[in-house]
């Protein structure tokens, strides 16, 4: 039995905020509480309000403001001598670093957060920090190294009955199965995650699970109509909560679904929309993936082969620089798809 989903990043006077609170509402409440905590001279409450503000800014794609907010939260937590609050601030900073494509920095900050949380006895902060490290490794394509950590965190979340973290872990393991070709297992895990999220009233987790289900339905079953129905349901949640990053990834997946169905003009429009959204929030991983889909769609619509070859070679360099192994394999597969050899000097063989 799982408890109702809650948001442990909303602390102190902000614990009344729901996991489903819209991000503008979270930011308004956090800003008000931050000013009050500073007037009262309470560094711990300042750190807690700053954490909520940092997370709202990050999820809204306002990355420069998120950067300042998590650093201010960390300094206030350090002034208060609270290891748990310091860990939460570092977790937010590490999560932001991953979002911005700074994966080495993300792992360092999240590792520091996990260590501080362990020393401070904050079990939830430690779990979230380790989860962040696992997700960073998964995004990099380092599946074997992080699969066991995902499974360990899933077991801990199930034992505590914490729905939100269980959903996250299920989705991470499902994504590994999907990327390594076990589509039936991926579907079952995404389906379980969607069910738990729905019962626990975790709208964000439910939207991500629906996106995963749509991907598998598209690849395994070739069912574009059902996949797009799932994605549109998730899109409504993203818009209601103003989840800009999740919305951009949803639109990119809509492009994937349409591309697989050979609806290349519609796919081009979806990828172009996602690309604009990723650029607006300075999300380099999403931007690179949307560019890849857009390049493939344009190639199918008759773009000059030389231009396609040049863009794919550039994207291969981008994926390698960020450290995205699976995404780099996707670029190589695209080069194979269009009969374009990797550029001289590109690392790795075409997959």
Indicate the topology:
Blueprint: H1 23-40, H2 43-59, H3 63-80, H4 83-99, H5 103-120, H6 123-140, H7 143-160, H8 163-179, H9 183-199, H10 203-221, H11 224-241, H12 244-260, H13 264-280, H14 284-300, H15 305-322, H16 325-337
Helix pairs in contact: 1-2, 2-3, 2-4, 3-4, 4-5, 4-6, 5-6, 6-7, 6-8, 7-8, 8-9, 8-10, 9-10, 10-11, 10-12, 11-12, 12-13, 12-14, 13-14, 14-15, 15-16
Can you describe this structure in just a few lines?
The chain is an all-alpha fold and 351 residues long. It has 16 helices and no strands.
Keywords, separated by commas or semicolons:
Serine Threonine Protein Phosphatase 5, Tetratricopeptide repeat, TPR-like_helical_dom_sf, 16 helices, globular, mainly alpha, Tetratricopeptide repeat protein, disordered C terminus, 351 residues, single chain
Descriptive report:
Helices cover 79% and strands 0% of the residues. With 351 residues, it is an all-alpha fold. Among the domains are: 11-102, no CATH class; 141-239, Tetratricopeptide repeat domain (Serine Threonine Protein Phosphatase 5, Tetratricopeptide repeat), CATH 1.25.40. The chain is globular, with a radius of gyration of 20 Å. The model is unreliable at 343-351 (pLDDT under 50).
Shape: globular
Low-confidence stretches: 343-351
**Largest sheet composition:** none
CATH C-level category of the domain at 141-239: Mainly Alpha
Whole-number mean pLDDT = 92
**Rounded to an integer, what's the Rg over CA atoms?**
20 Å
Task: Tell me the number of strands.
Answer: 0
> What's the architecture of the domain at 141-239, going by CATH?
Alpha Horseshoe
**Superfamily at the CATH H level of the domain at 141-239?**
Tetratricopeptide repeat domain
Based on secondary structure, the structural category is: mainly alpha
Oligomer: single chain
């Amino acid at each position: 039995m799982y408890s109702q989903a809650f948001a442990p990043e909303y602390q102190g006077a902000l614990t009344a905020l729901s996991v489903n609170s819209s991000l503008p509402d979270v930011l308004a409440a956090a800003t008000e509480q931050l000013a009050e905590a500073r007037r009262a001279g309470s560094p711990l409450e300042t750190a807690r309000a700053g954490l909520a503000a940092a997370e709202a800014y990050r999820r809204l794609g306002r990355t420069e403001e998120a950067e300042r907010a998590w650093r201010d939260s960390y300094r206030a937590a350090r002034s208060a001598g609270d290891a748990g609050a310091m860990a939460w601030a570092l977790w937010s900073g590490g999560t932001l670093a991953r979002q911005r494509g700074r994966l080495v920095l993300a792992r360092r900050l999240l590792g520091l957060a996990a260590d501080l949380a362990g020393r401070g006895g904050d079990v939830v902060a430690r779990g979230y920090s380790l989860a962040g490290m696992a997700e960073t490794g998964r995004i990099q394509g380092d599946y074997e190294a992080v699969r066991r950590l995902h499974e360990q965190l899933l077991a801990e979340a199930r034992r505590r009955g914490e729905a939100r973290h269980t959903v996250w872990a299920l989705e991470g393991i499902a994504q590994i199965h999907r990327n390594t070709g076990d589509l039936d297992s991926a579907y079952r895990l995404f389906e379980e995650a969607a069910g738990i999220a729905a019962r626990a009233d975790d709208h964000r987790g439910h939207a991500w699970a629906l996106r995963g289900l749509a991907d598998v339905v598209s690849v395994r079953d070739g069912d574009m109509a059902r996949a797009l129905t799932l994605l549109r349901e998730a899109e409504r949640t993203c818009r209601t909560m103003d989840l800009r990053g999740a919305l951009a990834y949803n639109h990119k997946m809509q492009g994937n679904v349409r591309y697989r169905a050979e609806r290349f003009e519609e796919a081009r429009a979806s990828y172009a929309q996602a690309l604009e959204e990723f650029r607006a929030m300075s999300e380099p991983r999403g931007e690179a993936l949307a560019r890849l889909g857009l390049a493939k769609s344009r190639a199918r619509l008759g773009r000059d082969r030389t231009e396609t070859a040049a863009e794919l070679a550039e994207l291969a360099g981008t994926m390698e620089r960020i450290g995205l192994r699976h995404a780099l394999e996707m670029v190589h597969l695209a080069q194979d798809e269009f009969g374009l050899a990797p550029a001289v000097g590109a690392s790795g063989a075409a997959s």
